[in-house]
Amino acid sequence: MASELTFIMVKPDGVQRGLTGEIISRFERRGFKLVNLKMVHASKEHIEKHYEDLAGKPFYPGLVKYMSSGPVVAMCWAGKDVVKQGRILLGATNPLASSPGTIRGDYAIDVGRNICHGSDAVESAKKELELWFGQEAAGIQYERAIDQWVYE
Ligand code: DAT
Ligand code: MG
């Protein structure tokens, strides 16, 4: 069974709008396994590190302010192809380009308030999980009885 991991985060607007449960549900119902979760009110410095690849973009200061403005829910999800599939569940970066049925396509409008984050590659997932979960980056190891009904 695949044990790929990804970092998924409910952003401050997703938390404030009461969408944490909905976002978790979509990953759970798909069959992915939650292996770590915590609420964090991240510092500006922590967000700057998370988005270091975007430093220099015109929207970067606003992005850092928004992402450190309130608590987020940081998660590690496991499963086959979960990095790519997670991005598909979230929808396009700009919610106006996200299909209905995706999280952003159903619940967001502005790119600067797109309610959720998902790693864009296996390598960035590893880096992000280490940044947010440190020693617990690999998540909690446990078996699920349903896995024989999710995977062939
Ligand atoms: P994604 O979150 O889909 O991986 P990204 O890594 O390119 O997208 O950008 C990170 C976040 O920055 C994104 O979720 C929202 C914000 N952002 C990206 N492009 C933006 C833009 N043109 N204007 C405002 N915010 C933007
Ligand atoms: Mg990104």
Automatic annotation (TrEMBL):
One of its GO terms (molecular function) is ATP binding. It comes from Jaminaea rosea. Residues 3-140 form the Nucleoside diphosphate kinase-like domain. Keywords: ATP-binding, Kinase, Nucleotide-binding, Transferase. It comes from the Eukaryota. This is Nucleoside diphosphate kinase. Its cofactor is Mg(2+). Belongs to the NDK family. The keyword NADP does not apply. It catalyses: a 2'-deoxyribonucleoside 5'-diphosphate + ATP = a 2'-deoxyribonucleoside 5'-triphosphate + ADP. The active site is at residue 117. ATP binds at residues 11, 59, 87, 93, 104, 114. The keyword Lyase does not apply. GO terms for biological process: CTP biosynthetic process; GTP biosynthetic process; UTP biosynthetic process. SMART domains: NDK. Its EC number is 2.7.4.6. InterPro entries: NDK-like_dom, NDK-like_dom_sf, Nucleoside_diP_kinase, Nucleoside_diP_kinase_AS.
